Amino acid sequence: MSKKIAFVTGGTRGIGAEISKSLKEAGYIVIANYNSNDKAAEKFKKETGIEVIKFDVSKFKECEKAVDKILEEHGAVGVLINNAGITKDGFLHKMPEGDWDDVLNTNLKSAFNLTRCLMPSMRDNKYGRIISISSINAQKGQFGQANYCAAKAGLIGFTKAIALEGARRGITANVVAPGYIETDMTAAMPADVLTSIVSQIPLGRMGRPHEIGSLVSYLASEDASYITGAVFSVNGGQY
């Protein structure tokens, strides 16, 4: 049964919400993490029936406590989605140290925290699917996002290492690197900025959240058991 329990960080909004819903549709029992927006989380829970759990993924002790609770209530988790992420953009020569630390801790250290907490039980069960959500900007860079690009690129190296460590124990680890996706965040961008972005995408449109969710759901499945250490770019050919 542990194979069908999935935990998604940042799983109640944006791409994370779509991943949570896709996994539920595929038959998983899903637990979705969030950190601050109680109203959005409760709305998501009511609309989807997916369990939500509030804690700060950047803090190891909070992750440890939350994982212990999940394991006690649900048994071993078979699927971990490292999706949580924030942005604090600014040119590096003006970037406060706190903005660097906050983004690295939330976007990268969180993946260590949750994977470290869940890896022992995955190893014991000889099964696991670890999928981390990176970004096109980790691959090509972006003005004003040195912290974000570094964190998301770090997920790629992290994943390749744990893919090697987990292979003999039935644990796969992969990365999905989305381009520009239709979310509340991109919807809030000025129209001229969105037009400029879309003009750079060969397919002529932004991606849709379900296109990320369906790929993640596939990578979590038994059909993907021979895929590990891979990076999947979902960006309409932009990079």
Describe, in plain words, how this protein is organized in 3D:
With about 240 residues, the chain is an alpha/beta fold. It contains 9 helices and 7 strands. It has helices at about 15-25, 40-50, 60-75, 95-125, 135-140, 145-165, 185, 190-200, 210-220, and strands spanning about 5-10, 30-35, 50-55, 80, 130-135, 170-180, 230-235. A 7-stranded parallel β-sheet has the order 3-2-1-4-5-6-7, with helices on both faces. About 45% of the residues are buried.
Write the layout of secondary structure elements.
Layout (H helix, E strand, L loop, with lengths): L4 E4 L5 H12 L3 E6 L3 H11 L2 E4 L5 H15 L4 E4 L14 H29 L2 E6 L2 H5 L5 H21 L4 E8 L5 H4 L3 H9 L9 H12 L10 E4 L5
Parallel strand pairs: 1-2, 1-4, 2-3, 4-5, 5-6, 6-7
Helix pairs in contact: 1-9, 3-4, 4-6
List keywords for this structure.
239 residues; alpha/beta; 7-stranded parallel β-sheet; 9 helices
Brief overview, please?
By secondary structure, the protein is α/β, with parallel strands linked by helices. The protein has helices spanning 14-25, 38-48, 60-74, 97-125, 136-140, 146-166, 184-187, 191-199, 209-220, and strands at 5-8, 29-34, 51-54, 79-82, 128-133, 171-178, 231-234. The chain contains 9 helices and 7 strands, in the order βαβαβαβαβααβαααβ.
